[in-house]
Amino acid sequence: MCLVGCSEDRCRCGYLRSRHVDEAIKPEDHALGSWDINRHVREARTDAFGTICFGGLGHKTAKYVRVSSDTRPEVLYELLTEQWKLTPPNLLISVTGGAKNFYLKARLKNMFHRGLIKVAQTTGAWILTGGTNTGVMKHVGQAVRSYALSSSLNGHIVAIGVATWGIIHNRHTLVNPEGSFPAHYDADAKGQGHLSCLDHNHTHFLLVDNGTHGQYGVEIELRALLEKCISGKKLANQASGVTIPVVCVVLDGGPGTLNTMYNAMLNGTPCVVLEGSGRIADVVANVAELPVSRVTIALIQQLMKKFFGQEYEGFSDAKIIDWTKKIQDIIRMPHLLTVFRVTADSYGDVDVAILRALLKASRSGECLGGESSQRQLELAVAWNRVDIAKTEIFTDESQWKSEQLHKAMFTALVGNKPDFVSLLLENGVSLRDFLQKETLCDLYKLLPNCLFLRRLAKRASTSQNLSRSPFKMHPRAISTQSQTISLSHVSVEVRRLLGSFTQHIYPPSATVYNLDTSTASDSVKESPDPQTNPERDLFLWAIIHNNKELAEIFWEECQDCMAAALAASKILKKLAEEGHDADEGEEMIKLAKHYEKRAMDVFSECYSCDEERAQKLLVRVSPFWGRTTCLRMALEADTQKFVAQSGVQGLLTQIWCGELSVENPVWRVLVCIIFCPLIYMPFLDYRRDEAIQREAEKKEEINTIESITGSVMYKSHSLGELSEEMQAKPLNGWMRLVSLYSSPQVKFYMNIVSYFGFLALFAVVLIVDFQPAPSGSEILLYIWIFSLVCEEIRQLFYDPDGFGFHKKAKMYINDLWNILDVLSIVLFIIGLGFRLDDTLFYAGKIVLCIDFMVFCLRLMAIFTISRTLGPKIIIVKRMMLDMFFFMFLLSIWVVAYGVAKQGILIHNEDRLGWILRGAVYEPYLTIFGDVPKNIDNTEFDISACSMNGSDPLKPKCPVLNEDEMPAFPEWLTIIMLCVYLLFANILLLNLLIAIFNFTFQEVQDNTDRIWKFQRYELIKEYHSRPAAPPPFILLSHLYMFLRSVLLRRPAKQELSGAEEEELLSWEALMKDKYLMSTKQEQLHSTERRIQDTAQKVSTLCDRLDRDEDPSSGSALKRLARLEEQVLQSAKALQWIMDSLKSPGVPAKDAPSLNVTLPDDSTDSSTNPAEKDEFFHVKARQLHYPDSRVTRFPVPEEKVPWEVSFSSYCPLYYTSSDTGDSTDGNPAGRTGLRGRGVLPRLGPNCSLDLILTRLNIHQVLCAFDVIYKHKYQLLFLISFQVFEVYKGYVDDHRNTDDAWVETTVLNLHLDRDSPLLTDINRMVTAGPASCLTRLWDISAWGSL
């Protein structure tokens, strides 16, 4: 509220007098003096906040608040981040420049728009502008509008406008003491006058008010404080103290923009100037590469006149001098100044120029050496700009240690930045050093919200509760952490996802409470320590939260890649099954299929190279993935395509044949089963015989090559490879017999014969020999059934893979053939119980007859091994499921018609059998053409029915009339029958046929793959089945029981360490070969060629546009240099011709050939005298330290006293000392008279002592000690002292009448010096009498 300063109709604050209350404009208030904001304006609670709704298409909204000009910036930052829920930025881009509308060339405008939005979105930056719809703010708004919703750039752009409340047009619509949600703002520029409208493309507005109206620039101070506040905040996810970087982007602009730019660079903020945007930006861009000595007042006047036009006429000489001084100071800070030139190829785009400017400023900041590089890397990771990191940080000259990249690696992993992860791995990150146990735990704690994290937290909470339970438990250790996620929790959860057949992948650091439902009771288990593998750990971490990019990077680094891919497929399918998010589940299934294909491709590459090694990879136990095999993992993950590969099927065929050769015809095997002596003849081939034969052929080949070439090296090398095969010996007679009958193939054929014999015996008993007293054949049948029961029990409890009883029972029940086995055994037991009871003897036979049907259906299982009939069994299973659902649909029509028909024809039928017959059975038969006769009166026979339903063998007669004929409406029953047959017989049956046809086609396309996958279960069953068929299998069961009780169970055979390492190295080589071939295919694909061609065309067009630009500065300069060279060549040729024409006459002096170098070389060709000339810089800084005094601007050319400077009129700043002035500063003008803050006029002498020594690590160090009292150094007089420098010091406290002079001495101390201990203690303690600085100068060379 304004209180004083009113004149006529308008107050000094800019508002009309009518806007004030009477109390605010009392005449007596004028006695307080001139109008002052601090005295005559008071604050009140804000009455403008909420959401702005801009009119027009789209109805864009933005949040806003009206704040006081002296609001603390911390409050504003809290408002932005906590109230408005903005994510803290990784970069702050402050865009400044012309506040008036100015023209940007189309090319520069597009580059600015594209680059600004790209850098904002890729780095998560905030854009800070003036917020109005004019000048540079309007261009920023257009950039947000044009590119924020682009298909190639996704994300939300944060554009914050900091504007002056008093200059906003139509601001009354924003006022609402209760808040406006929303406030409808009209951005119509009509009638705005000197006011401005808000830009509707900004997302947030801070409207700064100081009580004035129509005064621009009120927000400048608060905006600068807000930028400084934000720049002091730490980057998100950064623990190293790296703060949010700030960059200033300058377009166009006038004197105010120059002041903003100057102050920003003094505060260490880098500035990016866009050349070609106009006015002050072009002035700075034109002199940026010139030496300071060439930036004269005349040059600045010339450039101002060129770029400001008519506006230049209003500039005074004093302002030109001031601006020249500021421009000189600006170009003295090249590390903070970056000029973006449209015609230059160095920066490419505006976003690259902005980020390079920040890195350049960071490189030249306070951080030295590795610390500066670390900060640059952290900034690049925060911005997620790999291109900047490649070109600016990871250069050929940079040398990085692995530990220096660990922090960036952790940030890239947590922030999901796969490109940076790949870049860091390429530049030397050692995953084994990086991924410590604590690091991996932190990664799991920082997982994004996903199903696995929720289960992990729940498991950790459960473990904590169990650790506090009063029950008796005997843990090895109890964790002291509260609800902390540990690797033991991860291991238990991963084991649950992989399956209980696997072991824990991480050793338990504390007690692991096994809560797996597959065990009978909870128990405490300790797992063996598995091998550590950081690539596996990171791949697993990426898989469980469905991160495809990171998972792909670490899969390529995995040593056991095929097992890793199959494990990932299993985990992802399990997570997709348990999750509730359909979209996320679909993505997981897609990723699971991707890794299934990866495993297939790697195995195919291995199998095509070496079949034997590839099959070893399938059955080798993987120590990294729960000590299971790839084949077992593939089956558990239901990867049908992987199992269907020829290499996997070849291994299964070898397992199926056992020791027999896969080349043996079936008929030979059957003959040998019947007549076993044939195995001692060359009638049946064995795999051992084939291996010996291959060995002999190789030896013969070696001998043949030796006889021709005489190569000894080839012989020794070959014998080394055959060393294992040379130990193979032929099978003896007993082993041939055992190998024959232990082959799964032979077991299968023998069990088929046995099963046919069992069915024949069962049929004989049922048809011929079913007596009240069991006969011998029936007792044999009982023994046979008992052997089948024992085998089923063995299959249920036999668990070589360690699944656990719960998992094994679930797998057993899920098999259809096992269900038929259990059903047949249960029916036989029921039938046997009935058969032994005389009263139920016949019922028992009926049950056994039904049981015989079930046993016959079980016979279909033998066809699953057949390549022809096996797929048909699969089709029959699928059709049975289809028919089950169809029968439910059909039963609706059958019951509907049957009940209606029965109710119309028969009155009050109470016999249940005849009710079901009429309501269900007869309608069902009607579908197959058995049309009932009782619906038509023409075939009615009263003798065929019972009038009152007393005859149980006859149906009840329908309701009769007087003529003893049916009284029901015949036409209705016929219509009902027709409709029923139309829908049931035509529609539904044809629908069933169509369903069967669809199922057949669907399964037929994949029937081969499905059959190959299910074939494994049959092979596994007969591989573990005893050799003897039922009923002789009882002897095998007895032998197995005795062996399990009396003998120790043999351990699994595993590869030796050398074989394991060699096999994994070969697998990794095949994986790299596969990845290389895949990349080559992608490079030569049509889509990639089109992309490359489009990129090349775009680059060519860009360069053509750049060369055709008439304002291209580089083209004009090249033409000017060319013209100059042509002119000089013409003069030289003329001189040569004159000399040749007058050989006896001395020629004129040869013209000097001055070669004009490019602009890049201009600085280096400067006059040496000009370089040696010294002018103080710090002593001419405009802001004098520790005061509010501003120096008179002294440009570089006006520093010497010899140079005339008529307008030089500096202020006089001194203390109470009024001594006479001296002759003047020996280094020239400083822009301030008096002694300033120095103690005396004239020279103020000081002493600087440099102590050097060699530390214990032989590194040269220097102590720069500045003493306040020189007498404290008298104890060093006895030592040899070297004078390094004596003279004038460019100090920021210097004035024209007072300056600092110093003497620099160097004292070098040996390591054995007695004073070294005292000096070290003095430096460490840092006494108040001295200021010390320690520098490591080992990299500076010798002093």
From TrEMBL:
Record-linked Pfam families: Ion_trans (PF00520), LSDAT_euk (PF18139), TRPM2 (PF25508)
Domain Ion transport: 756-1007
Sequence ranges assigned to domain TRPM-like in this UniProt record: 392-645
Keywords: Calcium, Calcium channel, Calcium transport, Cell membrane, Ion channel, Ion transport, Membrane, Transmembrane, Transmembrane helix, Transport
Parts of the chain that traverse the membrane: 666-684, 748-767, 779-797, 817-834, 840-860, 881-900, 971-1000
Region (Disordered): 1144-1169
Gene3D superfamilies per the UniProt record, alphabetical: Nucleoside Triphosphate Pyrophosphohydrolase
Membrane topology: Multi-pass membrane protein
Domain TRPM SLOG: 62-289
Principal cellular location given in the protein's record: membrane
Localization (cell): Cell membrane
CC per GO annotation: plasma membrane
GO molecular function, one term: ligand-gated calcium channel activity
Entry's family note: Belongs to the transient receptor (TC 1.A.4) family. LTrpC subfamily. TRPM2 sub-subfamily.
Protein name: Transient receptor potential cation channel, subfamily M, member 2
Species for this entry: Neogobius melanostomus (round goby)
